[in-house]
Design goal:
There is one protein chain. By secondary structure, the chain is of the alpha+beta class. It contains three helices and five strands. The chain has helices at 4-32, 34-47, 78-90, and strands at residues 53-58, 63-72, 93-99, 104-110, 115-122. It starts with a helix and ends in a 27-residue tail after the last strand.
């Protein structure tokens, strides 16, 4: 019978080996799609502002490009419209999610080889977009403490 220390060591070693496998899969997902990703990211880079941010990540199977666009005049801002137009022409599936609290809309484009997510943030003093209070919500949150006898 193995000791707890031996089992813990074996478990740690197995976890570390799995981390290497996952890292290798992530690296390969990016390398295999290098040309396509380069084209997409270079095109987007030409359309966004210098202070916008772009990231590349992978889940081990597919690469994901993330772009944060801030200080937009509205969701019809030229630079956003151009990026969305390019992605609409080159990718199939599009989904959007609104985050009213931060006047933010996320656009997600998916294909079989990669995805692109655009997080578009409208500036707070926008003349055309603003957040509007439409209601309130009251939540009951249970609170606990430890009591020992």
């Amino acid at each position: 019978m193995q000791s707890k220390a031996t089992k813990a060591y074996a478990s740690g070693l197995a976890d570390a080996k799995w981390d290497v496998v996952r890292a290798t899969n992530k690296l390969n997902a990016i390398k295999v799609n290098r040309k396509m990703l380069g084209k997409v990211m270079r095109t987007i880079e030409k359309l966004i502002a210098p202070d916008d941010r772009m990231f590349l990540m992978t889940d081990g199977y597919l690469p994901h490009v993330y772009v944060n666009m801030r200080n937009l005049d509205s969701f019809k801002d030229d630079r956003l419209v151009k990026v969305l137009g390019y992605l609409s022409e080159t990718m199939d599936d599009i989904q959007t999610t609104d985050w009213a609290q931060s006047v933010n809309r996320d656009f997600r484009f998916n294909s079989g080889t990669h995805s692109v997510a655009i997080s578009a943030y409208v500036r707070e003093d926008s003349p055309t977009c603003r957040k509007v209070l439409v209601g309130t919500e009251l939540q009951t949150v249970e609170k606990f403490e430890i009591v020992c006898d």
